[in-house]
Every structure is written in structure tokens, then in C-alpha cells.
Amino acid sequence: MHHANHFYGHAHVLAAYCGLDPDDPPRIEGYLQHGWNVLDGLGAGTPYVSGRPILVWSEQTRRRAWSMGRRQATVVGAPFLYLMALRPEARPGPREGTLWYPFHGWESQRVHGDHRRLIDEIRATEPGPVTFCLYWHEYRDERIRAVYEAAGRVICHGYRGHRWRDTDPEFLRRQLTELRRHRRVASNRLGSAILYGAATGCEPAVYGDPMRLAGEDRATAERIRRQWPELHGVHPDPVAAAASAAAELGADSLASPAELRAILGWHTHRGPKRRVAEAVS
Questions:
Q1: Which of 29, 32, 71, 275 is the most interior residue, by most CB within 10 Å?
Q2: Integer angstrom CA distances of residue 167 from 161, 172, 249
Q3: Residue 206, SS3?
Q4: pLDDT tens across 20-34, in order?
Q5: 262 and 6 in contact (C-beta within 8 Å)?
Q6: In this predicted structure, what is the pLDDT of residue 166?
Q7: Average pLDDT, the chain
Q8: How far apart are CA 175 and CA 191, in angstroms?
Q9: Distance CA 175, CA 179 (A)
Q10: What is the band of 280 on the pLDDT scale with cuts at 50, 70, 90?
Q11: Residue in 249, 230, 250 with CA at minimum distance from that of residue 241
């Protein structure tokens, strides 16, 4: 299993959906897209063994992979949507405030920008309380975290994991819970969190200084703003935004548990005995 398949607890969520042990997900036969991107579903610079399956979120991503010579791409939908299926919102309560995701860096690239100026714009724009959700990379930076803590509530969904170590399988569950508590979800760049928020019923928004990532392809960042205008702005049309998010997450391509087990190479695996016993009783 490629170690990125464990990022954010994706393999754990899919194992639970398939009726298998979420604490010990089997090896996935292929590379599972771990975040929204505008290429072939693989992370930038990811080593790829030719001919191995790529499991992508959407038909759009599959087409891009095909055009780039990656012919083994299969659409499975985003793991976040499978988590939503596992945890339906039984009694939707009143939503309040905005969940704001500042654009973030990672181990190999730091983000550069004026966080204080961004916070000033956010506070001048958002009508209610704001929760700032920092990615683990910025959350561990005490200087950056302190700037946001001075402005309001600050949270982190957890550590993504790396090389099969320290993966937090509760990451997506925490994110789903927070999104369902908020009326709006916003960021200064379009990314997975905005799509997830739109899928859960939040009003999405993308505005503010987009900042920059060290060594990033600026042309790609600009293309994202041109290609998805319906998801940008302070108050995009929520209907159009939700439809676009559903397409990017592959909402119409989710598989049944049996189908997903076959796609992931899990058809010979069985769930924990205690769960089988519970099902029989």
C-alpha cells in the first residue's frame, strides 16, 4: 500500500464502509487520490509505477489522467463522501459562524503571506463568529498559531500521517463534525475543505490574499481561479457551488461496499468476527 493511502485516515474510512476492521485496513491495490488536485489524482512529484491502478475521486480527474498517459485510472469518489454515508446527520441543528481554512504549506513547501492582514479581511467580511482551522504544519508553528489565537477560536483536525506513521484516523471525522456545526466554510484558496463544506451544506466562499507556496506553479493556481469561478468570491451562488463540489468529489460515482471491496482488492477479506456475530444476531 502506498503510504499516501493512509493520509487523513482515508484507508480506515473505506475499510469501515466495506465492513472491515477500520483499525487495520487491508492493503489497497493501487494509489488512492488523497486530496483534490487538478492533475491526474497523484500528489505532485509522487513516484508512479507504470501500469499500477490510480483510484481517483471524479470523472474529470480520470479524464486528465488518461490525457497524461495514466490509463489505469478508476473513479471511486472521495473518501469523505463515504464517511458521510457512514455518519448521516440524524438531526441537523442550527449552524452558526464560519469555519475558515487558511491556505497551508507542508513538509517540503512553506506558505508565505501576511496572516495578520488576512485575518483583518476575514473579520471585516464574516458576519458571525469565526473558527480558524489550521493545517498541522501551521498549527505546530507557534508564531503562526499565536496570530490566529489572538483573533478567535483555533482548531486543528489532526496530523495527516507520513510513511504509515502517526496517521490520525479521526481526522476526517473531526472535520465532518466541525463543518456540520458551521453555516459557512471559507478559505483563501480553493481546496478539499471547501468542497467538503459545500457537500455538507455549508455556504462556501473563497476570497482574500491567496498567499503563495514556495516554488509553486503560479500558472496552475491562476487556472484554478479561472476554471472554477462558481466557487470563488465572498458569496458565490450556493446551488452552483454545491453542484460543482459534488462533481469534483465524485458524488455520482460512489460504489457499494461489495463493489468497493472488489475495486480496492479487498474482496477476499472479511470483517472482524465480533461484527459478523453482531450481524447474525
A1: 32
A2: 4, 11, 22
A3: strand
A4: 999 999 999 999 999
A5: no
A6: 76
A7: 89
A8: 14
A9: 6
A10: very low
A11: 230
Q: Given CATH 3.40.1590, say whether it is the number of domain 98-248.
A: no
Residue tagged 472482524 (cell numbers): 272
For the chain, give the number of residues.
281
Q: Is 183 exposed, middle or buried (0-12, 13-18, 19+ CB in 10 A)?
A: middle
Residue 213 near residue 106 (C-beta atoms within 8 A): no
Question: Can you give the residue ranges of every domain in the chain?
Answer: 3-78+250-280, 98-248
Phi, psi values for residue 21, rounded to 5°: -75, 110
For residue 61, the Cα-to-chain-centroid distance in whole angstroms is 15
Please determine, for residue 108, whether its predicted confidence score (pLDDT) is greater than 60. Answer: no
Report the alpha-carbon distance of residue 189 to residue 47 in Å, rounded. Answer: 26
Q: Which range has the worst mean pLDDT, 40-49, 148-157, 224-233, 249-258?
A: 40-49
Contact 167, 14 (CB under 8 A): no
- What's residue 276's pLDDT? 36
Residue 118 confidence class, pLDDT cut points 50, 70, 90: very high
Phi, psi at 215, each rounded to 5°: 75, 15
Q: Cβ neighbours of residue 203 under 8 Å, at least 6 residues apart?
A: 183, 184, 185, 235, 238
- Positive or negative, the CA dihedral 184, 122, 107, 110 is positive
Q: Is the pLDDT of residue 278 over 70?
A: no
β-bridge pairing 111-112 and 212-213 = antiparallel
Q: Cell 500558472 appears where?
A: 219
Q: Do residues 77 and 254 make contact, with C-beta atoms less than 8 angstroms apart?
A: yes
Per-residue pLDDT, 281:
30
pLDDT at 219: 84
